[in-house]
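Entry type: protein chain
Record version: 2
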Amino acid sequence: MSEISYRFSPDDLRLKTAIGLREAELIRIPRETGTALYGPYIELPAGEYEAVIRFDPRIPCRGRALMDVCAGWGTEQIASRWITADEILAGAMSARLEFCCAHLSAGLEVRLLVHGRFSGGIASVEIRGKLAKLQSSEDSSAEVKPESPSVTFADFPEPGVENTVRKGRNLYQGYQRGIGLGFSGLGARIALDPDFRRARALAGSRTIVGDANLANIFLLIKFFLPRLPFGHIVEFGSYKGGSAIFMASLADKFLPGVQVIGFDTFAGMPATDRAVDAHQSGGFADVDLPELLQYVDKINLRNLSLVKGCFEETAAATLGQQGSVALCHIDCDIRSAVDYAYDATRPHMVPGGYWVFDDPFVADCVGAAEAVEDLLIRRDGLNSEQLYPHYVFRESFDKTWQW
């Protein structure tokens, strides 16, 4: 069986609280009645799982609370149990709840409901488990269940706009992806796709990129990059390597010869601009690079390279050796990083190539948004092709190409 694992920290806004106090490293639960925790509203394929709420040992834990797991944005309770402070202490400051998804479950959340006498500090939420085995027709000893079908072009919605290039982008294609993931069942079908599931399982908890964003990248790699001139995939801001692993797994299947290159300091953010960046230098430093490289070697992803160092010191030489780029995934939260990632890749971008921005619409990433506004929109006159779940721009289709 394929395994899947997620970890959500208190600063992840997919975790929500009605009565708790969100601090730098925890969600503090006061002695009040209400919902101390809910979220993160993810999609889980059929399988057997365990939800774990980890508590900060520095915060006294008292009382009891109801822990449950719900799907359908709170409309379907899957499992629940009462937990006590004594159980949390005995469980190494954690509360656990096993549950089973009989089918694809969207809008899945872990909740902690308290009744005025519970207190503690939530340090993280984990969801992990094994996907249900996809049985084949060769298994004659069990009920025959065909493998979940792969996503095809027939699964895309019909956007109702012209399928043509307008102002340097194809809105028909952007709407296919954005409307499909935002308003139709395309995301649910992607979650069952065998190639998506394998790539998602390999990435595991190493990525904090949301599932809708991963689904969008899946669509780009499987359906849209094959239409472009040959080019590699680069990522700026790889953090723990999860999304780079995800892309490399898919590229290995759908884009023969394409390399995935992940740039990061792997030691935290560089200096930030206090005039515009909410993030501070040193953030996201909790990366064990030797362990990450060992894992990449273990799963045999020969098309993935992770490049350590500041972008300004590593990217130019690496891109010069690699040549053409067809997709640039920019997962950077600060102005200077987005500036450099875009400008460094533009000379290498193939006609019609993609810049995919992860963070411009995130609440504490206005620096990333400002870079897009100043460079792509004002300076270079580009128009976006897609707004959800990524901000997506295209290189000119008329670009003279010499690679």
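Comment: The chain has two domains: 3-131, 153-394.
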